[in-house]
Amino acid sequence: MTALDACAAGLALLAALLFAVASVVQRGAAAAVPDEAARGSHLVGRLVRSRRWWAGAGADTGAFGLQAGALGIGSVLLVQPLLVTTLLFALPLEARYSGRTVTTAQRQWSVALVGALALFVCVGQPTAGVDRAPFAQWVPAGSVLVLVAAACVLGAGRRRGARRAALLAVAVGLAYGLVGALTKSVVALLATGLVPLLRGWETWVLLAAIGIGTLLQQIAFGAGPLSASLPAVTVGEPLGASLLGVVVLGEHIRASGPTVVLIVLLVAVMAVATAALARGSVRAPAVDSTVG
After folding, report:
1. What are the TM regions of this chain, as residue ranges (predicted)?
2. Is the pTM of this model over 0.90?
3. 113: which of 104, 183, 238, 265 lies 20 to 30 Å off by Cα?
């Protein structure tokens, strides 16, 4: 691992810590909203009056800045998988907040996730591709992503429950995966000046994806049990971003022969461990539900 890669990894881990703080705070605010106000503009109206939600938004903003810095010097394939360590930071924070203890199963899945991540970085040695790609290269992958996300939103229906939460969360994960991949391009534009940044189509698509993803995330958190929504968001974001990094930005993993099989197994372990930790992190006793 080069010095730049190590620096990118460090920034990604700091971003994960702040994302964990934001997640714990904002999930508490969204889950506290009554059923009748947990949709669309009604939900947003309740959340923007919550000091708790704004505190989480501040942590989210700082985390995104660190993520952007990491993507500016490191590959999407390196940075995005490391962001799943958000769960490792969120577990003790939520345990303290809810007055419970981290379970043995959660500790075991944490070890599995850390081990798989470490091996993935060491064995795969993710390499950077290009910072920006022509719009035409984004169209095929972007179109599939948008169509799948739209199908999830339409299929979610309006009745609150686990199915609605899970489908909305898949759309959120895809939106945030697009944000992760586009952030690298926007950081490259920013380095060339304000005018190129404002002229670049990536900037405006990034802002749209952030806005849509944030809205859908709050709706998903309020639509049903967090055990249904959080795993889809947490697994979907790095997978979506990494696929775009490979397909669009030309990043790749240095692997061949048996190493490819090991990389596939490590990715599977990371996905399963992340989903298990996400489910476990929201199976906690109810906490104070006062919004504000």
Report:
1. 70-91, 111-129, 135-154, 166-191, 203-223, 230-249, 255-278
2. no
3. 183
Which residue ranges of the chain lie beneath pLDDT 50? Answer: 36-38, 284-292
Q: What are phi and psi of 93, to 5 degrees?
A: -65, -45
Q: What would the pLDDT profile of 191-206 be if each residue is shown by its tens digit?
A: 899 998 999 999 999 9
List the one residue out of 134, 211, 152, 154 whose CA is nearest residue 178. Answer: 211
Q: Which backbone phi and psi does 48 adopt, to 5 degrees?
A: -70, -10
State the Cα–Cα distance between residues 45 and 43, nearest whole angstrom.
5
Residues 164, 168, 227: CA angle, nearest 5 degrees: 70
Say which residues have a Cβ less than 8 Å from residue 259's Cβ, sequence separation at least 6.
123, 124
Phi then psi dihedrals of residue 255, to 5 deg: -150, 145
Check the CA dihedral 258-262-265-271 and report its sign. Answer: negative
